[in-house]
Specification:
Helices cover about 70% and strands about 0% of the residues. The protein is mainly alpha-helical and about 300 residues long. The chain has a two-stranded antiparallel ribbon.
Length: about 300
């Protein structure tokens, strides 16, 4: 009788202990997978941010090498280099929060990481709503800035970043002026006392329409180096301009900019959606890991 009474109690012990251990093992494996996924993804973005930062510093320090590599020199490199460097630092900082928080399982860092991502996501949503609802006002503001830049074209040579940027826009979009080339007529810096012919900047010149070597000699600045091998800088204070009745682009940049946005609308929306989904994924992983971390530790301590 004593033997039979002892057998049931012995058989029940392992049966009751296996279920919590199996459940605990599955949850622990799931959290470990999430932890290392979050770490690997943020490590990738940390490396990407460091590359962006180094690229911005390279432009800022060694402008000559960058200009010779790219082939353009009229981009305001100082502005773009600082923007790249700041973007790289922010990306590195955010990725570092995610890496350390996930690897060391620190709730404070994971919470801060989630908060920064949520702030970025909310900012992007707000900007998208403002752009869609205030589109007409934004267009008028951009037009006012461009027309002011055209009116003050090279009136202050020491402050030419806006003019160089607009030259770059005209050169790349193959357009002239905001509405039409007539926007450049009567600009003091482009007018000539010896002739009544209207002149426009060389960024308006349509190089594919002619192979006139005389025009190429006028385009003797490094920013227009793709127009011909004769392009060499004469003096930094020279202003490159061509007659308005020569081969210039006839369309304004407003129309070409609308065409560019229409042709690339799917790509722009796809990139925005991809960035938003990526941020949502990182936020979900971080908050799930943060919320379930204490529960796993409590159960582990309970079944030890």
């Amino acid at each position: 009788m004593e033997i039979w009474e002892g057998l049931p109690s012995m058989s029940l012990v392992p049966t009751n202990s296996k279920a919590p251990q199996a459940k605990m093992s599955a949850q622990d494996s799931c959290l470990s997978l999430i932890k290392y996924l979050l770490f690997v993804f943020n490590l990738f973005f940390f490396v990407l941010g460091s590359l962006i930062f180094c690229f911005g510093i390279w432009i800022l320090i060694d402008k000559t090498s960058f200009v010779s590599f790219v082939g353009l020199s009229f981009i305001p490199l100082q502005i773009w280099s600082k923007a790249l460097a700041i973007s790289g630092i922010l990306t590195m900082g955010l990725a570092l929060l995610g890496c350390v928080g996930a690897l060391k399982e620190l709730r404070c860092l994971l919470g801060l990481y989630f908060g920064v991502l949520l702030l970025l996501f909310a900012t992007q949503i707000t900007l998208g709503i403002l752009i869609s609802t205030q589109r007409m006002r934004l267009e008028r503001r951009v037009k006012d800035i461009v027309m002011e830049t055209i009116q003050n074209y090279h009136s202050r040579p020491e402050e030419s970043a806006a003019e160089e940027s607009w030259d770059y826009v005209q050169f790349q979009l193959r357009c002239c002026g905001w509405n039409s080339p007539r926007d450049w007529f009567g600009i003091p810096s482009l007018s000539s006392n010896a002739s009544n012919v209207h002149r426009v900047p060389c960024s308006c010149y349509n190089s594919s329409a002619t192979n006139d070597s005389a025009i190429f000699e006028k385009l003797s600045f490094p920013q227009f180096s793709r127009l011909g091998p004769q392009a060499r800088p004469r003096h930094s204070t020279d202003l490159c301009r061509v007659p308005a009745n020569s081969n210039i682009y006839s369309e304004g940049c407003a129309q070409n900019l609308q065409k560019w946005l229409h042709n690339n609308l799917i790509s722009i929306v796809g990139i925005c959606l991809g960035v938003g989904l990526l941020e949502l994924s990182f936020m979900t992983l971080s908050i799930f890991l943060c919320r379930n971390m204490d529960q796993v530790y409590d159960r582990l301590a309970r079944y030890r």
